[in-house]
Amino acid sequence: MNGADSDTPNLSGHVPGEPGLWVLIFGDLLVFGVLFVTYAVEFATNGAAVHLSQIKLDRGLGLANTALLLTSSWCIAHAVIAARKGLPQVRRFIWAATALGVGFVGVKIAEWSHHIGNGDTLNSSSFFTFYFMYTGIHLLHVLIGLGVLTWLGLRCAPDGRWTGSFATLEGSAVFWHLVDLLWVMIFALIYLLR
Amino acid sequence: MTWYSKRLTLFWLVLVAISVLSFESSLFGSRYAAGIVIVIGLVKASIVGREFMEIRAAPLVLRLLFLAWTLILGGALLGVIYGLRP
Q1: Model pTM?
Q2: Per residue in A74-103, pLDDT tens?
Q3: What is the largest CA-CA distance in chain A?
Q4: Given CB atoms, is A10 within the 8 Å cutoff of chain B?
Q5: Which residues 80-99 of A have a C-beta within 8 angstroms of B?
Q6: Which is nearest to A192 in space by CA: A24, A11, A55, A26?
Q7: Is A3 an interface residue toward B (CB < 8 Å)?
Q8: Would you say the ipTM is above 0.90?
């Protein structure tokens, strides 16, 4: 248990979390897949109008949020690793992941306030309908994830170790990574695709 | 006792580096720019799935389902954008 990657070799064939969770994960991936293709149709057929609204987005904020969620994912993955090794850093990693997720929400609120302040709301253009719907559905995932992370943090043993169910911790981490994965695609399609 | 995974840290670095380096790729103005943005997005999503969600070590059915999602979504997005765009 001292190699940096001793957490990986014995995982072959292991389903992280409860198998039932993966039905939810793939259901979500399927729904978002349809949403992504729907946006692509709008982008391809109504490109000029999309462009006029899209240039109002602050791509830098999108990039910042990408970095926040990727780093948050790294943290929760390390909470799982620490739990498998019986280390006391589990709680610290969970709170770090939570804090970065809260940072994501803060950036998103600032972004939304800016657009709404400029008169770009849910029904001001087709692009902003897509923007608010997709980032809104995603934000709901973030908030659910943050609720789960907070609950995990509170359930750690007083010394910071994880003494609860591994499937619960792993499954929650998988959901949090899904939130990250979906954001990566939203960032590419809504912010970057021109 | 090492508390961090070199592998995950390396992939995290790769993901952040790709995000920063590909930030301007959509502004190149070439007709391939849209395709590049989509492929880079899907590559990042695959890394998150395979490495962070541990799909790469999961049973074959899970690996195949995730691969299918990536490929079908990629094909659909590229098909729509290059097929429907005037």
Answers
A1: 0.94
A2: 999 999 999 999 999 999 999 999 999 999
A3: 57
A4: no
A5: 81-82, 85, 87, 89
A6: A55
A7: yes
A8: yes
Neighbours of A118 (CB within 10 A): 10
Question: Given an 8 Å threshold on Cβ–Cβ distance, is B72 in contact with A33?
Answer: yes
Residue with tokens 């399609």: A189
CA–CA separation, B58 and A182 (whole Å): 20
Distance from CA of A131 to the nearest CA of B (A): 17
Burial A72-90 (b: 16+ CB within 10 A, else e): bbbbbbbbbbbbbbebebb
Chain segment B8-50, per-residue pLDDT in tens: 999 999 999 999 988 876 666 678 889 999 999 999 999 999 9
- CA–CA separation, A134 and A186 (whole Å): 8
Q: Do A184 and B76 touch (CB under 8 A)?
A: no
